[in-house]
Amino acid sequence: MNATPRRLRTDLPFRRVALVLSGGGALGAYEVGVFRALEHAGLEPRIVLGVSVGAINGLIWVANGFGSDALRRTWSQLRPPSIGIRWETRAIRALGAFLLALAALEALLTLGELPQLGVTALLARSASALAPAWNEILLDTLAWLLVAALGAALLLRSGRFEDALVKITPAADPERVQRVLGRWLIVLALLFPIPLLFRFAWPQRFHLFVLLLGTLVWLVSRAMREDRALRRFALRLLPETGGRGLWRTGARRRLIEELLPPAARERLARSDVRLILTACEIESGRIHYFVNWRDPAPEFRARIERSLGVVRETRGVGDLIEAALASSAVPVVFEPVKIGALDFIDAGVFSNQPLHAVIADGADALLMVLVSPSGCPPRLSAEPNLIEIAARLSQIANWRDLQTEMQRLPPGWTREGDPARVCVVEPTGTLPGSLLGIDPATAAVLTECGERDAWDALERAGWLAADPRVV
Q1: Which long-range contacts (CB under 8 A, 24 or more apart) does 188-193 make?
Q2: Inter-axis angle of helices 53-63 and 69-77, to 10 degrees?
Q3: Distance of alpha carbon 108 from alpha carbon 137, whole angstroms
Q4: Percentage of the chain with pLDDT > 70?
Q5: 146-175 burial string, b = 16+ CB within 10 Å, else e?
Q6: Which site among 188, 209, 245, 308 is 20 to 30 Å from 366 CA-CA?
């Protein structure tokens, strides 16, 4: 990090600097460090284009008046559940089907006075030592029928359950649900011996089953938060059977809305900074460029259409939030975002650095932020999992797209010169972390790397004043 922050040179000739923020999932914390350097240098771009996580970061940064503090605080607390990546919810459909089948079997066996053949019979020997009375049989039967109803509800309404988790779990405290479950398990364990001591009718076998199943869920949930092997196992065995994505949109929407309080929304509505957020429309395969200004120039529309794109005007902050959600809907990982009658996903797989769009909008200089070196795609880990392999394909596509975009820049748009018209902020090697590796400690390292690399890039491009005392 630059020990003595320097300002932009006073004779910098560029008046419409465009900032292009690429996607990269959890590596987006790197961009926050870049924002911090730009803030200290006094660089306020007139055009901000964001793809995927870059769309979210760019939107929040502009809304906060080019201040990076809110984003930095958020990334320092961000965990996978904060954006909706809850491994527990992937088990909901499987758990629902299991409960439905098990409860139906237990109910039939109980009604037929054959509880000893039940799946949970071995676990309930202590509770069934006394001959069951008919009132206990009926209570057990009713309890299992309620479990069957719960299993059917979980099987058919797993998305609603995930939305409920989003509402009751603070973004900064994703383990709250696990703590509440642990407390309820303690209560159930303390209540278990009471019917045996006072000899009154109670669905004791059902009570024991719920206690054991809840304990198993708690242990697996705990392990999944701390063990990568278990997370990989769950990813392979528990896909979202709906087929639209592993996780939903609610948590990301809530996170963005929390970062856009009324003052930030008002500032964003008044801002004259041009925002361009991209997302891919599934049906047509065209990339839509969501813009925050009225009546884009015909030349701009024509240039976007030649690149198989569509220009879409937004009608307020709400539209920009939906555009950022659509831009960050990583295929397979998150469900597509519906805007109007159309479904959208992350366009970063196809165009992660659409430089042509900002040039078409009249930019006279370009500051591009990459989360991997422009020379070659980053290396895979020794034992890549499904997500890492998919991310590799995305990285290769991004690298190829970047080379094509750079080759098509107008004459004179290079990294050479004093000052250079193109400034590229990029890491010198592979950054720590991965697409979904959201972790506060890693985010802190990424932020520091981004700030350091931004100062180096501004220096190389000749955009900084020679004397750090120049203000």
Answers
A1: 188/214
A2: 140
A3: 11
A4: 78
A5: ebbeebebbbeebbeebeebbeebebeebe
A6: 308
Note the pLDDT tens digit of each residue in 105-142.
677 666 655 555 455 554 454 444 444 555 666 777 78
Give CA–CA dist 152/101, Å, rounded.
10
Q: Which residues contact 126 (CB under 8 A, 6 or more apart)?
A: 196
Count of residues in the chain: 471
CA distance from start to end of the chain: 19
**Amino acid at residue number 155:** L
Stretch among 134-143, 199-208, 301-310 having the lowest mean pLDDT: 134-143
Cα four-point dihedral sign 463, 466, 468, 471? negative
Is residue 13 reached through a cis peptide bond, with omega within 30 degrees of 0 on the bond before it? Answer: no
d(CA 34, CA 32): 5
pLDDT tens for residues 399-433? Answer: 889 999 999 999 999 999 999 999 999 999 889 98
Sign of the alpha-carbon dihedral angle for 120, 123, 129, 130: negative
Whole-number Å distance between alpha carbons of 93 and 104: 17
DSSP secondary-structure letter at 29? H
The CA-atom distances, in angstroms, between 77 and each of 34, 81, 173, 225 are 19, 11, 9, 15
Identify the H or E element spanning 21: strand 17-21
Give tens-digit pLDDT for 146-184: 878 877 877 777 677 777 767 766 655 656 767 788 888
Give the integer Cα–Cα distance in Å for 199 and 192: 12
Cα angle: 21, vertex 390, 169; to 5 degrees: 70
**What does pTM read for this prediction?**
0.74
Q: How far apart are CA 288 and CA 284, in angstroms?
A: 10
Q: Give the gyration radius of the chain's Cα atoms.
A: 27
Token duo for residue 131: 């001959």
